[in-house]
């Protein structure tokens, strides 16, 4: 049994134990599932058993599960030397994996288990973007069972890739949001749910002739472990800079009132927080001791003549004297606290669950891509680079964070990471995975698609195969090395190869064709290489025995 399989089994069994404790599954049922998982011969089998054993007892949520295809071939990374590029040997190297993202995630487990800080995914929920899962229903969209079946094993692997303080963001449409959230509750645990963002990407609304204009989609946020995750903050917009001032401690702006409000605001709720403050009406300085002389305003917390209380104690007022703002209000005065930036030297703000900004609009996303692709429309509904940048900012404050997107599409997440690095002088690394979709087949299914025609046209100009991965690669290359952007860094591109169809394997073993340096390892000796391959790639010994 490979080390990778042992760890996956242990994680799945640990989740079963948690479900027993949470009374989601009966102990006798869980014990049987644990025995079956322990007997599983591959990671695929272990995940399938766990998937078939889910009950969704809390929500009554069920779906007919469609399982991943089982094969005996060994799948591994093979560097695409033709498409990869390096600008500076000392620069950061990012990764793009071309192939089924399930295989990509299995291979990433070897090097990145517990090391991914942020995952962002925008899973396909249209009939033309689901590959072999794209069985359609009467509404000309994928069946929900297929969407959930496709996502389940990938989320299981994604969870194992996340660090203990990591987080995953998932964009989803209105129709599927509730069901996909139920799936995330199952895989990540309801206790690790953070927020559902309403992302306004078209304030004018999309007219779907249903009676209302659709203005937003959704984004789910789940922590790997909520107790260890800290939500980040967002940088402020240029037009918001005028709200901020600077003193000897740094940036600040007017914060909340220091007079309590709400059900526990009356004096009797916290009598010790009711006291007098005297304001010097010339200098606006204040004191807790009654001063001698005139020119002082006696301030107590009153609301419509009723005695209330302060939020701060006398000790807190004295301790944070420089954080108090005195404002003239009508014939009296009010006290406010200074709001400080949460992190760093620059002003920032907390995110809101209604994620609205004109920069998130689909129209702006299309404009961004047209700048890269010489005015051509290349994708119908691309995500905004600025949206992904803000999500990453909420997900981590680490300068060297690792960001994963295993539904890479046009490569927006890659560009977002590059721009954040450029703006903040950071070293975040992106890892993208994208299915190598056939553009000719896609155009045959959608003969009127302008974006698909433009993608094929570009492939012809580049003298490359008609594959979506070529478009993803070209976008990243233009952003990283082009005249308009030149955001730098290096890009390694991996294909998913197999022992069965790898062209040079007729007289070679998996130990010859698998390159350990693509998994963060130094070159190994023969014995060490054999041991490492056997520990990390299922079916190695079986494949050798067949030769």
Kindly describe this structure.
This protein has 547 residues and is α/β, with parallel strands linked by helices. The protein folds into three domains: 3-52, no CATH class; 75-233 and 350-532, Vaccinia Virus protein VP39 (Rossmann fold), CATH 3.40.50; 238-339, no CATH class. Helices cover 34% and strands 21% of the residues. It has 16 helices and 23 strands. The strands form six sheets. A ten-stranded mixed beta sheet has the order 1-23-2-22-21-3-4-8-5-20, sandwiched between helices. A four-stranded antiparallel beta sheet has the order 10-11-18-17, with no helix packed on it. Helix 1 (3-21) packs parallel to helix 3, helix 2 runs antiparallel to helix 3 (43-52) and helix 4 runs parallel beside helix 5. It is globular, with a radius of gyration of 28 Å. The protein starts with a helix and ends with a helix. The model is unreliable at 56-60, 127-141, 501-505 and 542-547 (pLDDT under 50).
């Amino acid at each position: 049994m490979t080390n990778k399989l042992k760890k996956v089994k242990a994680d799945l069994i640990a989740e079963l134990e948690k479900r027993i404790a949470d009374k989601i599954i009966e102990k006798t049922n869980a014990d049987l599932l644990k025995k079956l998982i322990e007997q599983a011969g591959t990671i695929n089998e272990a995940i399938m058993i766990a998937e078939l054993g889910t009950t969704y007892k809390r929500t009554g949520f069920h779906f007919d599960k469609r399982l991943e295809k089982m094969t005996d071939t060994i799948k591994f990374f093979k560097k695409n030397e033709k498409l990869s590029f390096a600008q500076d040997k000392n620069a950061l190297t990012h990764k793009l994996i071309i192939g089924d993202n399930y295989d990509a995630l299995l291979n990433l487990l070897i090097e990145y288990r517990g090391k991914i800080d942020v995952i962002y995914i925008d899973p396909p929920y249209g009939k033309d973007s689901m590959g072999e899962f794209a069985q359609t229903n009467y509404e000309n969209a994928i069946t929900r069972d297929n969407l959930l079946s496709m996502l389940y094993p990938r989320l299981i692997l994604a969870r194992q890739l996340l660090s203990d303080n990591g987080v995953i963001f998932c964009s989803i449409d209105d129709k599927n949001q509730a069901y996909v959230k139920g799936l995330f509750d199952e895989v990540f645990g309801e206790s690790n749910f953070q927020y559902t963002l309403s992302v306004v990407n078209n304030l004018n609304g999309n007219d779907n002739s249903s009676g209302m204009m659709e203005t937003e989609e959704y984004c789910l946020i789940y922590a790997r472990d909520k107790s260890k995750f800290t939500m980040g903050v967002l940088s402020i917009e240029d037009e918001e800079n005028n709200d901020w001032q600077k003193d000897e401690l740094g940036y600040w702006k007017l914060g909340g009132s220091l007079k309590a409000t709400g059900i526990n605001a009356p004096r009797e709720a916290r009598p010790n927080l009711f006291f007098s403050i005297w304001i010097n009406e010339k200098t606006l300085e204040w004191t807790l001791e009654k001063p001698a002389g005139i020119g002082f305003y006696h301030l107590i917390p009153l609301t419509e003549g009723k005695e209330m209380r302060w939020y701060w104690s006398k000790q807190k007022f004295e301790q944070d004297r420089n954080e108090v703002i005195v404002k003239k209000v009508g014939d009296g005065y009010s006290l406010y606290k200074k709001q400080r930036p949460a992190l760093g030297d620059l002003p920032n703000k907390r995110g809101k669950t209604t994620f609205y900004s004109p920069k998130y609009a689909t129209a702006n996303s299309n404009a961004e891509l047209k700048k890269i692709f010489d005015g051509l429309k290349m994708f119908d509904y691309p995500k905004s680079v600025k949206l992904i940048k803000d999500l990453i900012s909420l997900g981590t404050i680490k300068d060297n964070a690792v960001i994963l997107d295993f539904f890479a599409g046009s490569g927006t997440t890659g560009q977002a990471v590059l721009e954040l690095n450029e703006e903040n002088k950071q070293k975040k690394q992106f890892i993208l995975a994208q299915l190598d979709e056939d553009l000719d087949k896609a155009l045959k299914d959608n003969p009127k698609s302008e974006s698909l025609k433009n993608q094929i046209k570009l492939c012809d100009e580049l003298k490359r195969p008609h594959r979506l991965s070529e478009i993803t690669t070209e976008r990243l290359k233009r952003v990283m090395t082009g005249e308009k952007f030149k955001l730098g860094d290096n890009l390694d591109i991996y294909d998913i190869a197999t022992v069965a169809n790898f062209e040079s394997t007729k007289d070679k073993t998996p130990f010859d064709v698998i390159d350990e340096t693509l998994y963060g390892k130094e070159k190994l000796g023969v014995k060490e290489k054999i041991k490492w391959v056997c520990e990390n790639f299922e079916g190695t010994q079986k494949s050798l025995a067949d030769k």
